[in-house]
Amino acid sequence: MEFLISEGYDGMSRSAADVVKSVIVDDPSCVLGLATGSTPIGMYACLVKDCKEGEVSFKDVTTFNLDEYVGLPGEHDQSYRYFMDTNLFDHVDIDKARTNLPDGCAGNLEQMCAEYEQKIQDAGGIDIQVLGIGHNGHIGFNEPCDDFPVATHPVDLTESTINANSRLFSDVSEVPRSAVTMGIGTIMKARKVIVLANGDGKADIVKAAFTGPVVPSVPASVLQLHPDVTIVLDSAAASKLDI
Ligand code: GLP
Questions:
Q1: Model pTM greater than 0.90?
Q2: Residues contacting 163, CB < 8 A, separation 6+
């Protein structure tokens, strides 16, 4: 597990974008696993800039997002499809047909999840998975639980996540109560993983997840068992680590 610690949000974003960019430059037809949330917005802005400046091309890249809310269509401004379009896909030379998110409006969610998992495999697996981390240690929408969920699956969100994400909705009652997420097994199969976190508010969970015991009550802790993980932090999020 490697830690990259930068000054401030901009430093973290640049550093994370450089890791992703180098994967694309090494293999222009790579498969990216992507995340939403406030944390990676700056990283996406750096990648957009790099693409506009001709340093990287998404022309042959395929993407799979981690998760999506249940019941929000892609046009909804809080859907993760909308987030990805507005923060990255609309501003780079990617072929939108190669961008994949779980369909939170599918009639049969279980079947959609199985097909999503298969599609990742058919694409050759994920070369690099980008992750943020929730305050309770969730990755994607894998909430603290008794066992690490293996594959893409529907999930009920915890009150902690609903409250945290309510800042983006006009009222907490509008936050969907359920979502669809890649499983911990899906994430662990990615060949490389980077986790981004910034700010004091993430310092405790960063310490618990990456220096504490590996337990399903802190889902991100499982990443300690992955052979190629880079944790990209600003100094505030890193402030409780003894490294
Ligand atoms: C959300 C997303 C996660 C994200 C996390 C942290 O619920 N499903 O993928 O990593 O919460 O979000 P933020 O980066 O806004 O702190």
A1: yes
A2: 172
